[in-house]
Amino acid sequence: MLENLRFRFPNGKRKALILSYDDGSEHDRRLVALFNRYGLRGSFHLNSGRLDQDYHVTRREVHTLYEGHEVSCHTVNHPDLTRLPEAAIRWEIGEDRRILEDLAGRPVRGLAYPFGTWDQRVLSLLPELGVEYARTAVCTDAFNLPERFLAWETTCHHNRALELGRRWLEDDGPKLALCYVWGHSFELDGFMSGDQSKNWDYMEAFCRLMSDSGAVYSATAIEMVDYLNALRQLEATAGMLINNAAIPVWIQYGAGSIRINPGAAVPRQGFAP
To answer: Contact, 210 vs 40, CB < 8 A?
Structure first.
């Protein structure tokens, strides 16, 4: 009975944006300031073993720098997890999570795979390590919702974000559309970048486009996990919709949308088929 409903992201938005950045480079300081200027949220995947090293952020600033954004795992030392024994995989992820939670002062529930590499053995260990999503480096050029949180593919690297972002905003279809952008903030300064034009000006143009559109819900990756799980807990009876989750959800209602609070039940009449 739910398949005929038109779900919406918070505040009735049909489009959502995730910005995901790896490694904890010192350039994160400038990127966070840029996101804050345009009211956007980021997920920052940190290697705790590299904090305080040259060209990286410090342990002391993790709590304040990423306030309002997500701090997430990227392992302690950035190894290729597929080449490690299970005990080492557990330590790289579990220790990174422990340290980052201590530094950030809040739960750390996600992961970006170092080098984007993973296999079924690595993936199978993640639930016991408290990891609820794991981002790959696969770019699909699509705006789909994730099929698997633990092998989460992206829309694009940020070097194609502006072009794809324009196309995305022009789409006026009825379904939810998620744009998932990933990268490294140091690339915006020209380091390890094959295209020097994809710089800070390019990134600011993308952020301005997203902010000015008024059509985009900016979320961290873990917020998106929580929201999509909440939608999946929605219960439909013959005449009612019941929100069984701990957070509100939004459904299209007529020409607009309606918010269903946690534990609330609303009549089905009027919801878009």
So the answer is: yes
- Distance CA(157)–CA(187), nearest Å, equals 11
Backbone angles phi, psi at 173, to 5 degrees: -70, 170
Q: Where in the chain is the domain with CATH 3.20.20.370?
A: 14-229
Lookup: tokens for 4 = 């005929």
Q: What amino acid is encoded at 183 in this protein?
A: G
Q: Where does the pLDDT of residue 156 fall: very low under 50, low under 70, confident under 90, or very high at 90 and above?
A: very high
pLDDT at res. 4: 58
Longest C-alpha distance within the chain, in Å?
A: 61
Q: List Cβ neighbours of 92 (8 Å cut-off, separation of 6 or more).
A: 75, 76, 77, 79, 81, 84
- CA 75 to chain centroid, in Å, comes to 17
Average pLDDT over residues 66-89: 98
| 14-229 CATH fold | TIM Barrel (3.20.20)
Is the pLDDT score of 2 beyond 60? no
Q: What is the rounded average pLDDT of the residues 63-76?
A: 98
Distance CA 195, CA 202 (A): 11
CA dist 251 and 8 (Å) reads: 5
DSSP 58-88: -TTTHHHHTTTSEEEE--SS---GGGS-HHH
Residue 191 pLDDT class (50, 70, 90 cuts): confident
